[in-house]
Each structure stands twice: as C-alpha cells, then as structure tokens.
Amino acid sequence: MRLISFLILTAESLVRAVEAAGDSANQRQPIIIDTDLFSDVDDVGALAIANVLHNYGLADLRGIVLNTPSHYGALAASALCTYYGNDVPIAAFRPITNDTFFDSFFYLYGEYASKLAYHWPRTLNSSTSTPTPVELYRTILSSAEDESMHIISIGLLTNLADLLKSEADHISPLSGSELATTKVGELIIMGGEYPSGWEYNFGGTDPESTAYVVHHWPQSVRVTYSGSELGGNIFSGQNLVHRLPPDSPVLSAYQWYVGRGSTARPSWDPITTLYGILGLDWVSKIGIRPMLEYANDCGYNTITGSDGSNAWVNDTGVTNQHWLRLTDGANHSMAALLDDFLSCDPSSKSCFLYEGLSENMKDMPMFPEI
Ligand SMILES: [Ca+2]
Questions:
Q1: How far, in Å, is the centroid of ligand 1 from the Cα of 153?
Q2: DSSP-derived pairing of the beta strands 310-313 and 300-303
Q3: Which of 202, 209, 293, 331 is a good FRET partner for 245, with 20 to 30 A between their CA atoms?
C-alpha cells in the first residue's frame, strides 16, 4: 500500500518540471497506431498515452489507422489528438459506416465514439476525406528512416494484412512486405494469449488476417506480443474523476463506456502502447525501472486454428519474437503509472525523470540504484 499511495500522487507532486526529453530527435520513437477505437475504451487510454509521450518528446506519433469501419472512430481519434494539441494524420477504414457501438454481449458498456466526435473540437472534418489505412501506412513508411518505425497494433490485424499484401504503387516502388522489412524496427501487437489461448483481437472478427500477419510478417523484423493475460489483470482509470477536469474527453469516454459510476478498465492497449514507445529502456526515458520484461528467450508465435487461437513454438533459432509479462510485483504500480499518464495536462511538455523524484521515491524497489 505504501507504494500505491506514493504512485497515486499527482504527476506534479511526483516530479519537478523539466525540459521535454525530446530535445534530441533520436529520443523520439516514431510510431503508427492501428486501433479499433469504437467499442472498448482502452483504445482511448492508449491514444491518450501516445499523445502525452508525443508531447513529452519521447514519441513521434506519425499516424493513426482505424481497423473498424464506423466513421466515428476516425473522428473520435481526431478529437483526442486535437485535445492534446496534435494534428495527427488519420486513416479511416473502408467501407465507412455509420455504426454506433451497442453492447449486445454484457448489456453494460456504453458508447463514446460519436460523443467524442461531436462534442470536442477536431482537426479532421470527415472520415471520407482521409486516405485509406494502406495508403497512410505506405506514405508514412516510405518516408521513414530505415528500421525506425514502431507499429503498435491494438485492434484487428486487417490493415496490417492488407499492407503486407500491397504492391508497388505511386506512393512507393516497394511492396508492403518490402516496406515493412526496410522501415519497421518493431511490430508490437496486442493480441493472443501466451503461451497459448484465444483472444478477441486475433479471433473475434478477422482471424484470416491475423494468421496472415503472424505467419507472413518479415522474419527479420522484431515482433513483440502483449497478450490478454497481461493487460486484463491491470485496472487503470480508477480515479480519473478526481484527477481530470470535467471537460476531459478521456474522462468522459471512460465514464460513458464503463458506466455505473466507475472508470476502471483493464489496460490491454495502454500497456501495449507504453511498451511500443519506451521498449524496456525505461530508466533513461522516464527514470524508473521497467515494469515489463520478456517472458521468453526464443521461439515464435503461431496461429493454430481457424478461430484465431495461438500458441508459442519453442525454437532456439528465432530470437526476435517475444511476449511481455509484468516484472514481479508491478501490477499496482503499473496501474498507478498508467493513471499518471492518463491524468496529465494536455498541454504538459514536462517528463517524469529520475532526477525529479522525491528522496522517498528513490527508495522504492522500482527505481534504479543511485
Ligand atoms: Ca483495442
């Protein structure tokens, strides 16, 4: 409880304001986020963290592609980015629909995407005016530095399969597979269960695309998986009502989705996005020991059934694929850290840095030895 009580202090009391860590362009991790922003609100948490770390100078949010067809998804993504002061290229999935989320499974969770789209300013006027996801992927990748891009997939894998299948065109003389090989440093996927199981992103809607990506992703490019068992046990957003202003789209989306007076939600996509930006080098980037680690040394993921089930294959010849797990005892501290990021002021340019932490915090086990 002592650790928790420290970590739920406001961001301002944890750190002193320092210059953004992004003075050096080398520290900004370029990312593309592939999201099913529409139903579960943890995509909102993921986009919030991506925008916060973009503003801190740790991430370079180059683009957002939607893998669900409702036009509200792209508009809601634009509203979130606009709230954080960022005009991020966005691609709507095609064909575009007017769908709104209805929870016909639990009859519990509420719709938020259309509300974000219509009640907050946004730079994107219309989903129909955006490029397609493959066009935006190809445009961003073709201009990226070699092996620099991190693709963070927090939804269905339809767009990534379409990217891999894309041929040379007016955007790039390279095929989609060649662009991935040349430009992508790491693919980070929230999907599957590890070491084996079934999870919705992999099998819920488009298991064929999942199998294509898992089995055809260029073998030379790193892949890291974030399974359902990781984020499903970490509840973030618990106290947002006490830490965010009433007009925050992040607070509002969590309130609308979770409902019944609660804003706590599993953290599948926020954790995946945090890793996709920071990797495991947290000490130099945010001043604390990483709360994530690789669960395996070698092997690769495989899709074992037409329903999108997956299983890890042990193979000492493959060392660039991993799945993530928490470090020992990091469950509550991870939730508190995510809440700190979710609660950041949208205009904040300061960063958590080790030097700024209080003397008491330095004694906590998550912080490095001095
Ligand atoms: Ca998602």
A1: 8
A2: antiparallel
A3: 331
